Amino acid sequence: MSKRVTTQVSAGEIAQQYKYIEILRDYNQKRVSDAGKPVKYNIETFGCQMNENDSERLSGMLSEMGYSESAKRAESDLIIFNTCCVRENAEQKVYGHLGALKKLKENNPELVIAICGCMMQQPEVVEHIKKVYRHVDIVFGTHNLYKFPELLNTAVESRQTVIDVWDSTGSIAENMPITRKDNLKAWVTVMYGCNNFCSYCIVPYVRGRERSRSMEDIKNEVVRLAMEGCKEITLLGQNVNSYGKDLEGGYTFAGLLRELNTVDGIERIRFMTSHPKDLSDELIYAMRDCEKVCEHLHLPVQAGSTRILDEMNRRYTKEQYLELVEKIKTHIPGIALSTDIIVGFPGETEEDFSETLDIVAKARFDMAYTFLYSKRTGTPAAKNPDQVSEEVKKERFDRLLALQNSISREINDELLGKEAEVLVEGLSKSSKTTYTGRTRENKIVNFKGSPELTGKLVKIKIDTIQTWSLLGKLI
Ligand code: SAH
Ligand code: SF4
Ligand code: F3S
């Protein structure tokens, strides 16, 4: 089998998009001077950090086009939904919001409504939107996000619905604008797509095959971020352990971490997600050696029963997972682990579920994101006739949550009286004097502080343990 090598969208094509940005900027300038008020956009992002990062790219393009961001849909000239389809409730939420836009469009026929992201990669969803939500003007997918300026221009000029969804791509678009939500902490996507095909998961179908950005492009982005004052980066990919496999030159994720660890100004490096089946020793050593890489690892286990793990196509056993956890904890003492768990995968028996409780008790995660299994059309698990009833799923879910909460609490209780390094993010939402930040282990810490501490690393002595956060005092 010949190796698939990731390519870049040509400079010419990117330049073309900048031309459309310019056309729209002129158009908007005229609108602004005619109306005497800014043209505004509003983006609603559903789903994971990858989608958040994609929305930051859309924001970047829009601000270059002369749009300003608005928190209010009702006063916006352009509304975008960036959608997720990982679970059914994510999709239901989108449809709910989309229905509510109909009224806005009736009141303001000039309003442009665009919908993009993972849901749009499913042809039946696009059909449904065409039929039921006729107030939508632009539909595009995950593979052609960089073409948004062109699609928007076509919609504005033609005043007709524009639908453009690609099945796949082997390319990556670099050098498009980006406007980030947070200046202190930034998402940096290092690879797109997933080749793992876990049997329950829709992501490989809607995000396509694995594609890694070049190390040089990633490093340049991180250096630029550091110059702009960013202190913490989180590297994103569905399975970062596969980074570089599609590039010529023997690049690895461990190598990427070592390279980024040298960037001056960046204080902390995080990443997600790692698949347990191919978390290499080199990666563990890189985490251990690189002082900027935080002592936190998100390592989704999904289930505890080896039989279910096999059915899920996860390609590790319960024992292998626990051995891996041991190895990581030995090399990186004090590391915090978080995980994802699915409850009620088809065919899951009470005995299988007790293995999930057992692995949770043994691995002692700091935190777990727990999900009820959701049937995704097109995935192998959806065809399994042995679906678990909602009632049983919910009952198991509650037991799992109770166990995990008590473990999280026990782990946090051990932090009482300890010192922690906190990157100060700013005022906490509910107070004028309480500041908030996170430890290297990703725990939220609140403390009395002052404005000049924002963006700094401070030492805090933990004096109170709460369910979702810690309280402490500046040392
Ligand atoms: N690539 C990442 C996560 C992708 S989706 C990984 O492999 O870990 C995030 C989480 O959603 C998954 O870890 C899984 O726990 C959950 N998930 C995915 N498909 C699901 C489904 N059909 N039903 C319920 N949860 C699901
Ligand atoms: Fe989905 Fe599995 Fe890929 Fe994660 S690794 S995105 S769970 S298929
Ligand atoms: Fe959802 Fe797509 Fe992320 S399906 S979880 S937004 S990759």
End-to-end Cα distance, whole Å, is 59 Å
Largest sheet: 6 strands, parallel
The class by helix and strand makeup works out as: alpha/beta
Named once each, the bound ligands are: S-adenosyl-L-homocysteine, iron/sulfur cluster, FE3-S4 cluster
CATH topology of the largest domain: pyruvate-formate lyase- activating enzyme
Q: What is the total number of structural domains?
A: 3
Catalogue the unreliable spans: none
Number of DSSP helical runs: 13
Radius of gyration: 23 Å
CATH architecture of the largest domain: Alpha-Beta Horseshoe
Helix content: 25-40%
Average pLDDT metric: 96
What would CATH call the class of the largest domain? Alpha Beta
* CA-based shape: globular
Number of strands: 21
Strand content: 15-25%
Q: Strand order, main sheet: write it out.
A: 3-2-4-5-6-7
CATH superfamily of the largest domain: tm_1862 like domain
Subcellular location: Cytoplasm
Main location: cytoplasm
GO cellular component, one term: cytosol
EC number: 2.8.4.3
